[in-house]
């Protein structure tokens, strides 16, 4: 894994990414951080495999992408800033997927030649991964993506509306903030816990945000 990652690390370094363990970070505008990380496959819990249901991913790895939305981490998730972020810290997330894959996530087998695999990952990042991340280099771009798609990657409609609302509030657009907070609750009808969660955030900021 180290040999494969070293090839990718050399490519990401040219783009300004910093490395810590299996993850790479690059800070953009508004303190948003782009993340590329390697996820190591695990043997199924319980130590037995059921073909097609509980496959063993030991000896394999995936590449995860993410972008933090600092105001959402602060206002909704109640998380403090970190010196280094992992993909699971991100609000916007995606998996790096081969063109021929039909699943939502590609798993690479750790095998020789390691340099070839590293070059494949680096090429795929250049062609697909970095362009995905570069859709989110500022709050303005994140909101443009939301307006175009009405969701954020990895999030359902109601969570996307909540996160977009908090970004609008941070950008001092009260009208859009209030509108999307209402949408978040409307989309979550029947999900009492989430509606209460949104209401608790509204209460922090008062009636007019």
In whole angstroms, the N-to-C terminal distance is 48 Å
**Helical region count?**
7
The class by helix and strand makeup works out as alpha+beta
What value does the Rg take, in angstroms? 19 Å
Shape: elongated
Helix content: 40-55%
Strand content: 5-15%
Total domain modules? 2
Features:
elongated; 7 helices; 2 domains; 209 residues; 6 strands; 44% helix; alpha+beta; 6-stranded antiparallel beta sheet
Topology record:
Layout: H1 2-14, E1 18-20, E2 23-27, E3 33-40, E4 60-67, H2 70-75, E5 92-95, E6 108-109, H3 114-133, H4 139-149, H5 157-170, H6 174-187, H7 192-205
Antiparallel strand pairs: 1-2, 2-3, 3-4, 4-5, 4-6
Describe the overall structure.
- The structure is a single chain.
- The protein is an alpha+beta fold.
- It folds into two domains: 2-133, no CATH class; 156-205, no CATH class.
- It contains seven helices and six strands; from the N terminus they run αββββαββααααα.
- Strands 1, 2, 3, 4, 5 and 6 form a six-stranded antiparallel sheet that branches.
- α4 packs antiparallel against α5.
- The longest helix has 20 residues, at 114-133.
- The model is unreliable at 49-54 (pLDDT under 50).
């Amino acid at each position: 894994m180290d040999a494969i990652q070293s090839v990718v690390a050399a490519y990401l370094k040219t783009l300004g990414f910093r490395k810590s363990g299996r993850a790479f970070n690059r800070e953009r505008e508004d303190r948003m951080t782009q993340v590329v990380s390697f996820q190591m496959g695990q043997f199924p819990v319980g130590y037995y495999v059921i073909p097609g249901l509980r496959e063993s991913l030991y000896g394999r790895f995936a590449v995860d992408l993410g972008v933090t939305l600092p105001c959402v981490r602060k206002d909704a998730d109640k998380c403090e800033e970190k010196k280094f972020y992992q993909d699971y810290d991100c609000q916007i997330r995606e998996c790096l997927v081969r063109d021929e894959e039909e699943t939502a996530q590609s798993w690479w087998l750790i095998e020789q030649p390691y340099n070839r695999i590293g070059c494949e990952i680096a090429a795929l990042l250049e062609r697909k991964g970095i362009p995905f991340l570069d859709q989110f280099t500022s709050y303005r771009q994140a909101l443009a993506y939301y307006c175009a798609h009405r969701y954020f990657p990895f999030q359902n409609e109601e969570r996307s509306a909540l996160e977009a609302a908090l970004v609008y509030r941070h950008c001092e657009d009260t009208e859009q903030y209030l509108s999307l907070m209402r949408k978040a609750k409307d989309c979550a009808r029947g999900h009492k816990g989430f509606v209460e969660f949104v209401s608790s955030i509204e209460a922090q900021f008062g009636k007019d945000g």
